Structures are given as structure tokens and as C-alpha cells.
User: Fold these one by one.
Assistant:
Number 1:
Amino acid sequence: MGSWPPAYPLATPDEINRTVDQLWSGGASGLCVETGPTWALTSMTPAAHTLRPGAIISGPTVFGLADCALWYALFATVGIEPMALTSELSIRFVRPARGTTLFARADIHHAGRRSVIGSVRCWMDDPHGNGPDVAVAQGTYVRPTTS
Amino acid sequence: MGSWPPAYPLATPDEINRTVDQLWSGGASGLCVETGPTWALTSMTPAAHTLRPGAIISGPTVFGLADCALWYALFATVGIEPMALTSELSIRFVRPARGTTLFARADIHHAGRRSVIGSVRCWMDDPHGNGPDVAVAQGTYVRPTTS
Amino acid sequence: MGSWPPAYPLATPDEINRTVDQLWSGGASGLCVETGPTWALTSMTPAAHTLRPGAIISGPTVFGLADCALWYALFATVGIEPMALTSELSIRFVRPARGTTLFARADIHHAGRRSVIGSVRCWMDDPHGNGPDVAVAQGTYVRPTTS
Amino acid sequence: MGSWPPAYPLATPDEINRTVDQLWSGGASGLCVETGPTWALTSMTPAAHTLRPGAIISGPTVFGLADCALWYALFATVGIEPMALTSELSIRFVRPARGTTLFARADIHHAGRRSVIGSVRCWMDDPHGNGPDVAVAQGTYVRPTTS
């Protein structure tokens, strides 16, 4: 690790989206829209089968995008490490996720040799993030050991 | 609420599966296999698109079944309340979820007028739950207000 | 609730500190230093008995200040409600809490009729919050029911 | 790590209490009452300054005993490792903690080379654990690296 925060993101949205497309034939949960030195912004347009009555995006789908945003923010902060794994994630559902596009932005608080910790906000439809939160989350990724 | 714990489950697997099928055209995350006075056992056979490289079930899919198990355990404990919503859930991923069938069992610790709290264990392939955990979770459902 | 975010904090540090002093003969975990429309900054100088070997502030003490910051941020956001109670809180410990003064800042994501959700950062010694985090947390307060 | 679960606890209450007394001049949060191969039972009689109005034990005090129970359960499961540190812990407060003696029992779900994961129940006054829960928690300890 160099100094904190890094001066610029260590991965661009293009690099992240390409990497994830190659890894997962099924496609990732979310598209990387933007990265900064310690954060990433992601979005997804939910598939019909993930909608609940009332056209509400299901909780596990929102969890999936929050988890994805944290993974991409880790990439932006320490470089692309596909083998980094979610260790734990806690999520609070704030209001029904109703709308067309779900956004999630993750900010990294700490990037250590063994783990990376961040917080996530999820909201609907506004790329600038001014909408009210539909969920917030916080969690830990474990980095692959280099021994 | 009557006495705690209730003497018998307030919903059978059949009642739960039928209710959820009617509610969600897309189908529920998991099938209810068994219920007790304060718990439910669920299972799912993951669809191909939820698998990650190495045939590992994705984290959000495991989260989805854990969440589902808690919902069904709430039904078993207080009766079927489809409008009960996940308020918060924290999950720890213990080991890669590799195998054919994912199981989750939720146990309710507390069922109050406003919220229900429970813990969940997830494991692979053994209906008797003797396999090692792939994930554990704990969380809160909020019950619909009756005013 | 009026519009979000409120235009100004609904409680000052003085009002908060006075209220808490009157409520708790034992004293609160933390002193309110500053409030904004949806946030509060708190600090504490740990007592000797809360220190672990190596002069590290104990985890439960850090948890206590994080919890306190969230309570004060709720006061700043919806007005002083001493009967608001922590419903759940998850905390990640980032690095040893070594230093003289522990700070915690809580930001509210959502303030509803029944619950208030926020995130907290904890760090050492720098009132401006530029130090590295010693812990981060996220959680929910339940508001007293008015029926 | 040998086989799971271990056949007998790797630390007795006496060994645990003696170790913790030697480490912390300020005293530990809780007394170890009993250990099993993958669990520990702890208790504490709260000091007056930890009580809130209504003689309720404060949330951070309950958190402290839950954290302590998880530490002791780790000792019982993998042997005494004082340098194991709480990585993250999420707690749900179920009802006011009113009474004389607080108990917490932690059960380990997973003990790996790098981390140990467990769940905790907290209740009042009944050494046999039949009382209703005042709080439940779940979390992760990180083990000291041996390299």
C-alpha cells in the first residue's frame, strides 16, 4: 500500500467492466459507471424476475449491487483483485426500491494488507445520487493472501 | 403474541410454499422444507446463472436464501404475514458454497409486536444440517403495523 | 418529519449535553462537540480502566462512543428524543485505538416515523477528522411510539 | 486445526479467567462460567455506573459481555490466544436488560486459520439460559498471524 488516500483510481470503469465480463459468463450484478481514488459508482437495470409485487426490486438484488459496488471500490483503491471475497456485509433496507435504475456507491474507509472495509449507499434513478437512500450497507472484503 | 415459544408451528411448509408461489410470479428464492414452532428449514438448487467460476454459488444468492429462511421462520412463529419486510441483515461468508443443494435454517430469538429477530445457518447438500457452514447471518424483520 | 435534509440542526451541543447529564447520573459515554442538520460530532477522553495493554481503548468503549454519536445525530436530525433506543448496530474495528481523545461522527441516512438509520466513523485525536479511522459502524435507532 | 468440532474444550474457565486477570489490570468485562468444545458461558454483575435510568444495563455494557463471550468461546475452541482481536460484531437489542446478573453464551460456527466466527445470546439472571434474550449478536475475531 502506498499513501492514503491514493491520488487517482487504480482501475477505470472500462477495466473493471471488462475484467468482470471475462470472469463471469453469467454477467456481473452491476455495471461500473465511475471510479475515484477510494470509491466506485455502479448501476443496474433490474431483470423482471427480480421484481416483487408492486414492481419493487427484491432485497437480495439490492444486496447484490451493494456487494458489487464494494468490490469495484476495492478495485479502484488497491487495483483489480478478482479473488478478493466478501467476508461480511450488513445491510439496512430503508424504503421500497421502486424505479428503473438502481445505483450504488461504495466508499472505502480502510484498505489493509488483509482486508478492505467500506460503506455503501443505494438509491434509485438519479445518477448524481441526490435521491433518498433505498438501502445502506457496510462490510469487509478479504484480500487473497500473498505468501 | 401468546406464550413463548409457541407449542407448534403456525404455518406448514405447504402453506408457506403455496402462499409465496401465489405472491411472486418470479418464484421465491427458496423452498420451505420443514417448520418448527420457532424455526424454518429451506433449500434451493441454484440456477446456472448464479454460479461463479469454480461452480461456487454467488454471495447474493446465499444471502437471498438466508433472508428467505428468516421470512419463513417468522411465518412459522407468528403466522403467515407476507408484508413483513427485512429491516436489516448481516451475513458472514465462511467458505465457498460449492455443491448441489443449498440449505438454510433460521431460528427466531424474539418475536415482538413490531419486529422479529433471528439467526440463520447456511450449508451445502446435507438435509440434516451436519455439513460445515458456508455462511451465517442474523437480522431483523419489521412486521406490518396494525393501527 | 418536514423536508429532508432539515435546514439546520434541531439540537445544539449544549442542549444535548445538558439533557444527557440530567438523565444519567453516571454520565454519558461522550460529549457532544458539534451538530449539523443530519449529523453530530462527539468526543471522549477514555478513563484508565477502559484501556487495554498497550494503552489501547477497548472495543466496547469505542462501540459506546459510536452508539452515542448516532444517538446525538438523531437528536440533531429529529429533535431531542431521549427514549429513542439502539435497535441494532454493527461495528468494524479497523486499527488499534491509541491516543488521547477518541472522536466519533455520525451521519443520518434516513429518519422515518419509526426508525432512524446512520453511519459512524471513529478516529483519534484530530478534531477535524482527518486521522485514519479506528472503527466504522452502521446502525438503527427505534423511535418511541406515539399512539 | 484438528477435526471439527473438537472433542473437548481447549481451555477451562479457570485458565481463561486467570489469563485475562493477568492481562488486564482493569479487569475483564466478564467472568468465564463454563466452556464446551465450541462455546463459552460468561456472566457479569454490572457496576452502578453502567446502569441507565430504570436500572437498565447500558447497551455498550451488553455489547462488552457479548464480545467477551465470543473471545472466551474462541479460547475454548482453538486454545487461549489473547492477541485474537474483534474484527466486526453486529448486535441486536431485544428488550431492556433489567436484573442482577447478565449472562452471555457464544457458540463458534467456524474456526479457520485466519478468523473465527460465532453467535451470541445475552439474557438476565438465569444460569441455565432459559430466560428471554435481551440481545443477540454475531461476529468475527481475527487470529494473530503466524508467519
Number 2:
Amino acid sequence: MVEYQELSPAEWFKRNSSIAGFDNPVRALYTSIREMVENSLDACEEEGILPEIFVLLRRLNEDVYQIYVADNGSGVSGKNIPKAFAKLLVGTKFTLRQSRGTFGLGGKMAIMYGQISTGGTVRVISSKGDGKVWEYVLKIDIEKNEPIVLKKRVIKSDSNWKGTVVSFSISGDWSRARSKVIQYFKNTGIVAPYANIFFVDPDGVLYYFRRTTKKMPKKPKEVKPHPYGVDLDTFSRMVSSSNSKDMVSFLTKSFHRVGKKTAINFLKFCGIDPGRDPKTLTLDEMARIVRSMRKFSFLPPSPEGLSPLGEDLLREGIIKELQPDWCDTIQRPPKSYMGHPFIVEVGLAYGGKIKEPFSLYRFANRIPLLYDARNDVSSRVINQDINWGDYKVKKDSPIAIIVHICSTKIPYKTAGKEYIADIPEIRREIKLAIQQCARGLRRYLNRIERRRIAERRLSILSRYIDKFVESLVSINKTDKKLSEKVKDVMILKGILMDMIKGDRVE
Amino acid sequence: MVEYQELSPAEWFKRNSSIAGFDNPVRALYTSIREMVENSLDACEEEGILPEIFVLLRRLNEDVYQIYVADNGSGVSGKNIPKAFAKLLVGTKFTLRQSRGTFGLGGKMAIMYGQISTGGTVRVISSKGDGKVWEYVLKIDIEKNEPIVLKKRVIKSDSNWKGTVVSFSISGDWSRARSKVIQYFKNTGIVAPYANIFFVDPDGVLYYFRRTTKKMPKKPKEVKPHPYGVDLDTFSRMVSSSNSKDMVSFLTKSFHRVGKKTAINFLKFCGIDPGRDPKTLTLDEMARIVRSMRKFSFLPPSPEGLSPLGEDLLREGIIKELQPDWCDTIQRPPKSYMGHPFIVEVGLAYGGKIKEPFSLYRFANRIPLLYDARNDVSSRVINQDINWGDYKVKKDSPIAIIVHICSTKIPYKTAGKEYIADIPEIRREIKLAIQQCARGLRRYLNRIERRRIAERRLSILSRYIDKFVESLVSINKTDKKLSEKVKDVMILKGILMDMIKGDRVE
């Protein structure tokens, strides 16, 4: 007898935890820290607060660790805490703007993984700065996907402390996760130079990623869906929830980039009466409208929903973390693919503390991507689309390439957010941005090449001059009559040295 | 004000449909067909029925297709149909045995994708062969993840027809999906030579993948979880649902490969009293037990939960679909990784209709894997671990390598089931199996090499003999005295030919 049973989302994700990056104790530890830090950064940026994030990883026994993350972000109000931390598939209202996370999944997966692997609870302390500090101790009822509240209290506080502290234990493998975790913090430093991040590792070592700017990227606006990106199911739900009495007002009110004139032209294009009440549309008509939307030429989506870093902040971050001799950054104009707007930002850095050739730093919506670089669209551009010789870059040149893609929909190839698909529109923008930066690098490399030549000439000449002067001086010692000449020689040397140094070396 | 809202699993998967392989209209069409066919094969194999599967893909308009799949499988009883086809995360009872599908997701994702992209419904007709045929027309309420029953009726039938028919429409791109779909059917023919599969494509072309054997692989048994693969959450739930009054009976009844003696030794190893009531265990004690389980040497998991094809069936499938000149198959003994048993089966085929060098056919739990071959563990073995020259195989040799891995837990690297992770235990088994087959191939290639040499010798000699005879005959014409000699020469030729042919060519 076949038995049908329902599975809670928590149970499903527990059984398929590799989807969210919890494949093994190494990856799980890295992913958990990353998800908690991303949540903290989001909580700060949401209200334009300069982030102060403190992360402590304590070894409880050989393979169990406690993760403790504290931030000064917006805080979570008391009644929302259980759902926000111990129930999967719950989140803030879905809108079309750039955001770091998968809808309410990452942080809770970390907490659930902790519970599965250690049996422990999660402790959450949070305040919205209203004098009330909430403390909860929670577990996830995995079979029901519901929070279990083990402890709940509210503390009156005189301070206006605002922020969130989360702490839970997890099975992990620090010795093998270490390099990825440190790399993650370092890369976060590049895209969030406005954040102070403290990390204490299980050996008690403090890593401090210091804020070097108070400038923060602007918050993205919410935008309505673009006609290119809407499916029939979404369209019919928009119809049901709309109060518009005619098609023109329905389209203009519900869609991005659809004004009255565009709406009328579009309705003509698909043969629907502009005065038609949307509620009277048949399913076939709605299907026709959605199909026609893909073919009609609307204005491309605007980048209002995006929150790029900007060239200055990105340069700031690169200089802070990589300390190169030379660096330049480029932000490309907004473009779109399949109705989703995107912006590509690229940085190129050379020399200084950079020792490795062709280090690639990838970011998507300000999340560092550390796995599966080889398959990423950026790797393809670097390896296949750029003729580096044209830019005086050699195979062993100490160069770092930083690529940041932001979009309302990042085309990840895996759900674990490891790498970005090879979308032609995106590939093209990355290529153009790298080429633009590389031209600046070529000028710089030409300049240091000229300087090196000049310096070599200087060193040869100056060695020659010294010998010349020395021999003159020794002659002088034996032949007093020549002593007058020595002064002339010294003057000559000065002139020569000035000439050499005056060579265009900037 | 932050708004918290709950998301139904259906809604979540709709927004993250790429997880299950619904990235774009090409992939979606391929994945939908695949998921429906896999469900049909499962429904047949479950009851040991020789599968008869009929798939029809009809073009409804330029990018909308109707998928119609009929099978003679076990059927679904009337009351279960809505949940089984129009509610996500519902499935048959989870057990530890090899199975094709992700827990109740694949087929429903296809149906949901159809609904999202075309607004259509799904029609299901099914019977368990009891004279009652159920017909449902369903939709998924995506916001609530609940089935909506639009039509339901039961027909009394005199025939004992048993099976299921599913039909729904979907947006797709046949012209670009075509090659993958055909490849999928062809590869299914390799691992299911006992199935008759009919496929009619949108142009009306019938593809018939004919059954060539009535032998089916044995059904896998359900096995209890192995101690190596249990997490703390699962362990504590096992404790709650157990009636055992002492630890020894709890361990022996709940776990695979734990007999009384092993249980007592293990309990000594982790310092728990054998007579202890499991319900009195503290969380810390349970955590200690689970940790100790990883370190104690239990017998490896048995392969009872697996259902490999077997060497004969696999050879049957390869010969049927690839029609090579030579073929051999190997099944390796069962092994395990992290508590999960697995068996590797490999086939090697050479020449005949195989024209391409090094074609790799990958299968996991009898599912063909068509995407991302490059990253798969099998590709690594073929490219890095085997010195093909040792086996007389050249770079352009027309050779096909067939790798089938079955396990209660396939270590997929992506949720879309595209490729298998590089697990050392699995890699080693694949390598050994290929080497074993390759030794047979070397013998075969040596044989045909010798035959080719012999044939060349024969052709040179026979050409020479003819000339020789001819010249003798012409001499004969001018010199009548030599006519007697000709007979001798003809006899000599016969002897020579026999000698040449008699050269060891088998």
C-alpha cells in the first residue's frame, strides 16, 4: 500500500541541504558564517547604518563550534523573531529590488543545520532601539516547519541599543574551512569598505577589517515588474488583485516602463480593446498578452532597483584590501537581459601587495563568490575574450581583476550561488569594462617601463660619473694643479644627474 | 515597516525553478518530458510490470506544447491523485532505497511550470486495475500549495486497465530541445532495455525504442539507516518514536548492520549503559552517541537497498542502442561512502555504429545525465586516471564508455542532477571497472590487429599468386610443353591460400 505523506519545507531542505551550500562540514561552516554576516550587512544597509559587525567562532569540542554574530542593524521586532529565525520560507515582502539573500532561506538553513548537527538551540537578542530588548531561545520543529519558543523575555533598557545578536552551535571543520572563511571576509572588505568587521577565530586570533570610508551605496528603490519578465501565472494574479477598470490603467499602474501611450500601442499590437475591463479577460487572451509582451519593444528596465557600489567605493575597497601599486575601476551603464536590469562594475589592480598573476575576485549583488570560479562568465571573459598582450600584461603579471555584477535577478547556474551563467549581454559588459580598465593599465605599465629604462640609464651614468670623479680626485691628490678642475667636474656631475633625473619619469 | 509573510513551497520553487532544471524554455521542455517518463518507469518497476510508455508531444502554437504521457504502471488511487499531482513536497513514504526522483518534486515542478507558462490545467486519468478509472482535472493553488480540483469523475470499466495518463501544456522550444530529448530517450533505452517506449514528436515523427529483453532488475529492499549516515536530529526523532526499553534493542531494531554484539561493543565504546532506556538520554548523550557512530567500525552498509542493472542487462541495452562491434560490461562489488552504499557498473563498447571517439554515457540510479559532463567524476577518471595507450585505445578510437552509479544517496553536485561529485571511493571504483573492461578491449583490439595484418598479407600474397598463375598460363599458351605444370601451380596456389587463411585470425 502506497502511503502519501506531506513533507514540511524544513524537512525537504534538511534532506536536500546541499542546495543551499551545506554539503559537508567544511562548506557548512563557511556557508553558515557567510549567511549570518550577509544578514547583518543587510540589516544595517536597510536603514543606512554604518555596519559594525562582530563575529566570534568558538570551538566547543573537536568538531562542534559556536557561531556568535552581533550587529548594529535595524533589529527585529519581538513578535517577528520566531518566524524570522526558526521557520523556513518566511521573509520580508518580496519586491523587485536587488537583495543579497534567497527569500528567507540562507540564515535559517544555517540555524537548522546547526540544530541537526548538534541538537542545539538558537539564541536571538534583538532591539529596534525603542528601549525594549527581546531575548528568545528557539528551535525549529523540522517536521512541521514551525518555531518552538523555549524561552522568551523582554528587558527594558535605558540605552537605545539597536541591533541583533544571534548565537548557535554547529558541526564543522575549521582547519579546512579556515582559508575560505578568511577569504570571504577579505572579499567582503572589498565590496563593503564602509563596514567595520571583527572576526575572532577558534584559536583566539582577531581579524579586523577596518572601515576606510563612511560613504555607503544608495539604497535600491522598489520597482514594478517589467513586461519582459512576467509569466502568465503572475500576470493573472496581478489581474485578480488590481482595481483598474480598463486595460490602459491596469498596464500603466502594474508595469514598469509602461506609460499611457505605450500601453495603447501595445494593446493595439496584441488586439485587445484599451477600454476592456481586465477582470473579463479570458485565459487565452491573457496568454496572448504575455506572449506579445516578449515581442513588443518596451523601454529597457531602469536601474532604479539596483544598488551598485560605484567606482569610488569599489576603488576604496580594492586599495584597502589588496594594496596595489595601481588600481582603476569602471562602472558600465545599466543594461538588461530578459527583462532584468543589471550593472557591471570592474576593477583592475596591479603590483604592490598583489603577487599572484590573474587573481579573479567575483561578486554578485555584493556577495563574494568563492566556489566554482572556473565555470563563471568572468573567467571566460578573462581567458577567452581579452588579448592581454595588447595591454602589456604578461602571463605572470601580478594583476587582480575584480568583477561585480548587480541585478534584480542574478543568473546563478546553481542554487548554492556558486557561479554566474554565460549570458551574452553580461559577458559583453564585463569584456568592455575590463578592456576600458586595461587601457589605463597599459598607460601605467608604459610609464613604469619608461621609468625603469630611465632609472637603468641613471644608474649606469651615475656609476660612471662616480668613477670619473673618483679618478679625478685621485689625480688631484697627486697633481695639485688639477684641484681647480675638480670643482668643475662636480658641477658637471650635478648637471648630468639633473639631466638624467629630468628624463620624463613623472 | 517590515512585513513578514509566509511563502508556500510552490511559490518558492516557482521563484527558484532553475533548482529543478527549469531555467529556460529549452531546458524546461526537456526536463518536463524526462520527469514524466521517470515517474512512469518508476510506476511500472514498483510492481515488476514490463513498461509500455507512450509519449506524445503536440505543438499547440509556436511555443506552446502539449505533453501527453501514458503508462501501464501501478496507477494512483482516486483519493491520492490531487496530492500526487498538484501539491509540492508530497510523496510516498520516505525509505532508504534507491529511487529515481527527488522526493515528490520533479513531476509536479513540470506540471507547475506548465501552469505558470500557459495557464493550463493538468488532466490525470488513472486506475489501479480494479475496474474503477478516475479522471481529474487539476490546478495548483501556487500561493497556498494546495490542489484545486476542477473536475473529478469515476468511470466503471469492465476492462482491467491499469496505469496512468497525464496530459498538460507547457511553453517550450522544441527545435532547440530536440537533440537532448532524443538523446534522453536513447540513453533510457540503454538502461531500460526491458521497456517499450513510443515517442511522437511535434512533427509527427514516431520514435520507437523497442524492448529487447523481458528481464527486469530486481526491486531494491528497504533498509534501515546505517549508523554512519545518521544526524542528531534524525537520531533524536528515532528515539522518540521507538518503543524499545533499552539501548541494545533500540540500536539493533533501528539501525542497519547493528547486531546485539555490535550494539554492546558500541555502547561500551561510547560509555552508555546497555540497559539504559533510550527515552532517558540527554541531548548531550545523544550528541556523543552520534559522534561516536562516525568513529566506530560498523560493517559497511549492505547493497540490499540498491537496484543495479547487472552486467547482462546493461550489455543488452548497449548492444541495442549503440550497436557496437565489441562490448563488455562489469559490475563492481558494493562499496560505501559516508554510510551510503553504492555500486558502480561500467560498459565499454567499440566500433560498429559508434563513430565518435570517447563518447561518455552517464547514469545515476538509472537516470541518464545529459548536462555538465565535463565536471562529472566519470569524465575525470576517463581524462586523468586511465592511460588509454596501455589498452591500445587511440585518441580517435570509436569508443563509448557507459558508467552507471547506483546508491541510496547519489552525491549530485547540483540539485538539477547534472553531475556527480568527485568522491574518492566512487572515483576509484569507476577507474577499476573501466580498467577491467579495457583489458578485454585490448584483447579484442590485438585480435583485430592480428587479423588485419593477416588479411593484408593474404591480399598481397593472393595478388602475387594471381600474377604468378597468369604469367604461367600465358607461358603455357606459347609453350604447350608447360601445360602440365599449370596444374601443379594451381595446386600450389590452393595450398598457399589455405596456409594464409589458416593464419591464427580468431
